[in-house]
Structure formats: structure tokens, C-alpha cells
Specification:
By secondary structure, the chain is an alpha/beta fold. Helix content is 40%, strand content 22%.
Length: 275
């Protein structure tokens, strides 16, 4: 059984991510947790009356129940169960507690929240979660994305790191669910692979040997984001899987105060896997 948490701020983008995950895991036995974090700093709480705080909490609970019922109305799968969770902790702490307390397999989020600017690909909450969440994989769904069965999953790799079970398991799980092909993308930054890269390439092939898979060498562009987006378009990729290593492409993405400077605007969901 899979356990999946939706951190929600009740925005349209958050709802799009929920709908995507319900369809992605439609053939799995799942419990879905709808999590809302109503964090108040102490200074803020001291200026609010107990009655007002209770009203805010009550409204958040109503919104959670409304979202849960809306999900139930479009998902009639008897193998799917739904629960709502309200937390007063900061978002990342609320997610981490939920992941640990309920043995969560995936965190599913939209790219932007209720206040997300059109010029930015990531909202601040998504950026924070990607940066700090190392407990389980995060599936990030682009704004206004319509569900497409992930028949083609891209996995970019420089072959410099060994791909262990913690990293390859989520990719294989989703590939098995939808009979997906796995396309391993390598950017040509060297004339030939060194011994470590050769070993890691062979180990990756071993990891995915039971799946339709292939290796692809991409020419080096000025930006890795450009290479990945070209690959997504050329190979008709439906999902991008990235391992969140230290000093990785993911770190480059979330380091910029304005994400658009990097030029990374994928049109497919991407799975961020902790190292």
C-alpha cells in the first residue's frame, strides 16, 4: 500500500497536483493525506484573540474537508482512502512529521501556491520543501498540467555517482505502475567516460534491466536546463526523475532568488528523489 501526502494551500495549482496523483496511482491501494499548515509566529498569535485563532483553525478544517470531499467525488476507487491533517507547525516541519508518523512514500505538490507569481516556476513553499525534505521523494506537478500516462520517464545522469536502491526504487515503482520506458540521459562533458563513470553506467543498466530502457548522449549546451528541455521535447518525455545530490542540478535550480533566470520551465511533472 502506498501512502501519499498532499501539502495543500487550497490553490488551483495545489488541486491540479492532487488530481494528477489520484490518476497516477489509480491502480494502487493508497491512503492520501491532505495536509494544511496554519503556522502562526508567536508575535502574531499574541496579537490575535483566542476566538479569532479558533475561527481561522475552523475555516482551515472546513477547507480541508471540502478538498477531501471534492477528491472523493472524482475518485470512486474503493482502494483509495482519504484523511485530512491540520498542523500549526511550519510547513517543512509539518510535512516531515507527517512523513515520519505515517510512513509516507511520496510528497506531491504543485509548483506554485496561491500567491505564486506567473514569472516564477517555483513558489517559495515548493522551493523550501525541495531544499530541505530528505525523508522521501517529492513529486512536483507543473501549473495547470493535464494528466498524461507517464509512458516515457527521463533520468538525467552524469554517471559520477552510484545509483543505490533509495534512488532507483521510486523510478522503478512508477515505471512498473504504467509500463513506462526509462530514458537515461547523459550530457557529453567529457570525451570518454572514466572508470568510475563506466562502472556507474553499468550499475544503472543493471538497475533498470527489467524495464524498457535506453541510454542517450546529449551535446553540451550553455545551460543544463536547455539540454533537459530539448530531451523532454525530442523524446516525448512524460515525467522527469532527478536525484537531489549535493551540488546537483536541483541545487542550482533552487539557489536562484528568481528561478526564471535559470530558464528551467519543464512542461512535465518531475520526481525529486533524495540522496
Amino acid at each position: 500500500m502506498k501512502k501519499i501526502v498532499f501539502p495543500t494551500d487550497f490553490s488551483d495549482n495545489s488541486w491540479s497536483a492532487i488530481v494528477y496523483a489520484l490518476k497516477l496511482f489509480q491502480n494502487e491501494i493508497c491512503t492520501f493525506y491532505f495536509l494544511h499548515s496554519s503556522e502562526f509566529h508567536y508575535s502574531t498569535m499574541s496579537n490575535l484573540s483566542n476566538k479569532l485563532l479558533r475561527t481561522i483553525e475552523s475555516n482551515a478544517l472546513k477547507d480541508l474537508q471540502s478538498t477531501l470531499k471534492q477528491a472523493q467525488s472524482i475518485d470512486v476507487n474503493s482502494n483509495h482512502k482519504f484523511e485530512s491533517l491540520l498542523s500549526s507547525k511550519p510547513l517543512i516541519e509539518a510535512i516531515r512529521a507527517t512523513v515520519n508518523d505515517h510512513n509516507i512514500n511520496y510528497v506531491v505538490m504543485g509548483t506554485k501556491g496561491a500567491t505564486g507569481a506567473k514569472s516564477m516556476f517555483f513558489g517559495s513553499n515548493t522551493t523550501t520543501v525541495i531544499k530541505k525534505m530528505r525523508d522521501c521523494p517529492i513529486l512536483v506537478v507543473p501549473d495547470e498540467y493535464d494528466f498524461v500516462v507517464p509512458k516515457q520517464i527521463a533520468y538525467p545522469s552524469d554517471f559520477n555517482r552510484f545509483l543505490g536502491p533509495r534512488e532507483y526504487k521510486p523510478i522503478r515503482e512508477i515505471a512498473k505502475l504504467h509500463d513506462s520506458a526509462i530514458r537515461i540521459m547523459h550530457i557529453n562533458e567529457e570525451e570518454e567516460l572514466d572508470e568510475i563513470q563506466k562502472y556507474n553506467r553499468i550499475s544503472i543498466e543493471e538497475c533498470f534491466k527489467k524495464f524498457d530502457h535506453s541510454f542517450h548522449w546529449m551535446p553540451k549546451f550553455a545551460k543544463k536546463s536547455t539540454e533537459i528541455e530539448v530531451f523532454i521535447q525530442d523524446m516525448e518525455i512524460d515525467m522527469l526523475a532527478l536525484v537531489n545530490y549535493k551540488h546537483s542540478f536541483i541545487e542550482d535550480l533552487i539557489r536562484e532568488p528568481v528561478i526564471k533566470k535559470i530558464g528551467f520551465h519543464p512542461i512535465v511533472p518531475f520526481l525529486v528523489i533524495p540522496e
